[in-house]
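Re: [help] complex structure
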Amino acid sequence: MLGFSQTVAAGAALLLANYALAHPTSNGHHGITEKKPEDQIEYWKGGCTVHPLGGAQDDGPALLVAFDKCRSNSIINLPGPLYTVEKVLNSTLFNTTINLDGVIQYTPNITYWSPNSIFLEYQNATTAWYLSGENVTLQGSGGIDGSGQVWWNAYATLKSQGGSGVAGGSTRVFARPVPLAVARGKHITVDGISITNSPFWHSIIFESSYVTFKNIYMKSLSSNETGAPAANTDGWDTYRSDHIVIRDSVVINGDDCVSFKPNTTFAEVTNMYCDGSHGISVGSLGQYYGVADIVSDIYVKNITMLNAQNGARIKVFPGSNDTKSVSGGGTGYVRNITWENFDCENCDNPIIVTGCYNYDSNPKYCQQYPSTVQISDINLINFTGYASGANKVGNHTVGSIRCSGECENVTAKNIDLLWGRPGVNQTTGNYICTNVASLNQLDFPCQEVPYS
Ligand SMILES: *[C@@H]1O[C@H](CO)[C@@H](O)[C@H](O)[C@H]1NC(C)=O
Ligand SMILES: *[C@@H]1O[C@H](CO)[C@@H](O)[C@H](O)[C@H]1NC(C)=O
Ligand SMILES: *[C@@H]1O[C@H](CO)[C@@H](O)[C@H](O)[C@H]1NC(C)=O
Ligand SMILES: *[C@@H]1O[C@H](CO)[C@@H](O)[C@H](O)[C@H]1NC(C)=O
Ligand SMILES: *[C@@H]1O[C@H](CO)[C@@H](O)[C@H](O)[C@H]1NC(C)=O
Ligand SMILES: *[C@@H]1O[C@H](CO)[C@@H](O)[C@H](O)[C@H]1NC(C)=O
Ligand SMILES: *[C@@H]1O[C@H](CO)[C@@H](O)[C@H](O)[C@H]1NC(C)=O
Ligand SMILES: *[C@@H]1O[C@H](CO)[C@@H](O)[C@H](O)[C@H]1NC(C)=O
Ligand SMILES: *[C@@H]1O[C@H](CO)[C@@H](O)[C@H](O)[C@H]1NC(C)=O
Ligand SMILES: *[C@@H]1O[C@H](CO)[C@@H](O)[C@H](O)[C@H]1NC(C)=O
Ligand SMILES: *[C@@H]1O[C@H](CO)[C@@H](O)[C@H](O)[C@H]1NC(C)=O
Ligand SMILES: *[C@@H]1O[C@H](CO)[C@@H](O)[C@H](O)[C@H]1NC(C)=O
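Output below.
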């Protein structure tokens, strides 16, 4: 969220230099005779097949040739078993299907990826695979392995060098690449693949329309979760995109399962199993003064959410009197968002609307500068499960809907959430509300808690 300090940027440069020193000679070729990328590609009528070199040699150049030669009205077969990739995969395809049955493994070389990944102009996100074009299917039983551990370790080291409290995932100096970005594309489907060991968000849908992800398996867990957690490993982020479907997928991670970022409209997220995440979230929105952020027409249904920080979440920044603010004062709206059939088991905050993001500890500020992002037409239907009890705010709170500007037309029905662990300290859940105009449309009693 907040940028890295100069100190941390300097730390990142040092860290990258150290990495280069620790890996001075290896060029990854292990003495095997160099082949031309063309030699790895088998061309046939209607498509091409890429065979890996093996021995940890870079298959990136051959993949790029195939993405170019077979870029339209083609089939690209990637049978594997294992492609080692040390090149950014920039692919713009038309009427083309990629059959990914092998695994694409990004080389764990921070020195290479940091400067070379494609910059996405949002939260300093960068990607190692920029998948663009129209009428594209990426499918198969294979996947992408982001070699995340080296990035999580390096990120933890950076934080320990002075970045503590830094919420943001990356800077342009130390940019952890997203394994797969669907970017500036239309009618793109990703089906069946896995994305594991993600350095940062697993995937971003960026400036695209009509994008479907289904039957996806995502998993990113650190071998050192306490010292070097798999930080910022959101399942999906969506930005400036519309008509998105994400369904029938499994996400095991340590940050949002799905996060709707500014200007996401018409999205459906259904039949999801999320373990260890930070929930299915809208926002954060309204961060930049005068910039309009819109999230609307979102339907989230049939979610199993286990061991999560949040279940259903909206977060917007407060307003600001500073026209240069990068911490509130944005405009826009959150409208027509539904979460239905949501089973939240062991979630710290099963339902949470944060209307004064980043300033919760300063209620006077929230009162003085209410959010200028409007929130309306929010529906919560059929929630089951229980809060972990980790959140000590309020008394046995399972739902917290706190708006700094007024929230309109929030409805809740069939909400049956408990607080505390089964057989340990479980009890009925409580709800708190701030500036909710439609208390009579909530089927639970909501205690009004002003900012003061
Ligand atoms: C992006 O990176 C730059 C330079 O590293 C940094 O100053 C800025 O705060 C970062 N922005 C975000 C949103 O993280
Ligand atoms: C990626 O490919 C597109 C289309 O060919 C091109 O416009 C763009 O400059 C490339 N980006 C990078 C970083 O190579
Ligand atoms: C894609 O296929 C459609 C027909 O289905 C055709 O009209 C269009 O020209 C094709 N696109 C390209 C880039 O070849
Ligand atoms: C990592 O990438 C850098 C920059 O491309 C390169 O100089 C270095 O040899 C690579 N290191 C390894 C271990 O492959
Ligand atoms: C995508 O497919 C549709 C339907 O077949 C076709 O009309 C359109 O031209 C295709 N787009 C491109 C860029 O080829
Ligand atoms: C775990 O991470 C911490 C902090 O970065 C580090 O000090 C420690 O050595 C790591 N432990 C292992 C087993 O890698
Ligand atoms: C709900 O999602 C789960 C996967 O998490 C799936 O097994 C189940 O069939 C879905 N239920 C309905 C009614 O679609
Ligand atoms: C979102 O869309 C609105 C309306 O089209 C536009 O004014 C605003 O600049 C967009 N915001 C972002 C972050 O793209
Ligand atoms: C609300 O959003 C859903 C999901 O995109 C859409 O189907 C529905 O038509 C929208 N409702 C209104 C009133 O716009
Ligand atoms: C914003 O208001 C605060 C008082 O709440 C004041 O101290 C500050 O100078 C104001 N900032 C601007 C840019 O007007
Ligand atoms: C409520 O949601 C649960 C799963 O979260 C589902 O099993 C149940 O069928 C839903 N009830 C109704 C009435 O739809
Ligand atoms: C918690 O309970 C105490 C004592 O019953 C009450 O005074 C207080 O208002 C409650 N706080 C909240 C946030 O519900």
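The longest strand covers residues 397-419.
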